[in-house]
Amino acid sequence: MIEVRELTKRYGATTAVDRLSFAVRPGTVTGFLGPNGAGKSTTMRVLLGLDAATSGEALVNGGRYAALRRPMREVGALLDAGAVHGGRRAFDHLGWLARSNGIPARRVAEVLEQVGLAGVARKRVAGFSLGMRQRLGIAAALLGDPGVLMFDEPVNGLDPDGVRWIRELMRALAAEGRTVLISSHLMSEMELTADRLIVIGRGRLIADTSVRELAERFGRGVLVRTPRPAELTEVLEAAGGSVEPAPGGPADGGRLTVGGLDVAAIGDMAAAKGIPLHEVTPHSASLEEAYMELTSGDAEFTAAAETKPTTEATARRTS
Ligand SMILES: Nc1ncnc2c1ncn2[C@@H]1O[C@H](COP(=O)(O)OP(=O)(O)OP(=O)(O)O)[C@@H](O)[C@H]1O
């Protein structure tokens, strides 16, 4: 379990994290999303005791990282895969970590096998590709078999196979009941990997939601196809729905976009009136679109032309 409560972190005049609160529960993959400079890495650094909070709390399993008796057995993290000394061999690097943290030596071979690096265990890290370094960083995070895992941009720079591997590993770790937090600025990736999303911008919480809720919240109505569009329109409008010809086809082709009523309500009303339906499809916005709408105005560096009025974004957020 990860809990962040009213966390603020300032660097001089820069407020990197601003009264941020959220919780990450076991058994889920939680995506930590936000534009560049939103405060994701800073939040993770404070959670891992690498930076001190200006105010508020960042807790792992109910305590501060510094107070954990056996930190690597409680929390595993990958912040910067490039941080390993190139002259070290993978096996020795992990062996040293295991020894200095009271972790049985057999775990080294186990995690190397788990991340697919058993064959290069005796090779120096300097010769590793970015993907191999990411795997080594993940092996280090898994070494103490911790219940809480944090990964900062784990798929950055990886090829499609590497991306898929990380996605499957994250899902498997969560299925084992672990708490998994992954930061990313790529909604498209998180859509496939995460169950829940914490979205931040300029250090503040923008959304704490499930992937499904976010897609529904930004839904674009329901596409309905029927051979009797005029009758259906009358029925649905009488029930308070809004009905328009669907883009991409004339209304007399029977394609309608319905707002304000869900799929079940539309189906029930059509059935009650004996109106056949040939298609009923909820139209959720892609999460990428939802994310762009949520974070517009919250990017640290946004071209002026792309910046939407922030009042609009704020109103939506607080509604
Ligand atoms: N050590 C530091 N000293 C001064 N400012 C810092 C420091 N670390 C982070 N910041 C600033 O804090 C803000 C948040 O940065 P942070 O790296 O946490 O964002 P992020 O969401 O992880 O971004 P990215 O996706 O680019 O990694 C930025 O304005 C950054 O410049």
Automatic annotation (TrEMBL):
Gene Ontology molecular functions: ATP binding; ATP hydrolysis activity
Coiled-coil spans in chain: none
One Pfam family linked to the record: ABC_tran
Top-level taxonomic group: Bacteria
Ranges where the ABC transporter domain occurs: 2-227
InterPro entries found in the cross-reference section: AAA+_ATPase, ABC_transporter-like_ATP-bd, ABC_transporter-like_CS, P-loop_NTPase
Region (Disordered): 300-319
Keyword vocabulary terms for this entry: ATP-binding, Nucleotide-binding, Transport
Classification via PANTHER family: ABC TRANSPORTER, ATP-BINDING PROTEIN (PTHR43335)
Family the UniProt entry places it in: Belongs to the ABC transporter superfamily.
The name this protein goes by in its record: ATP-binding cassette domain-containing protein
Organism (species): Actinomadura decatromicini
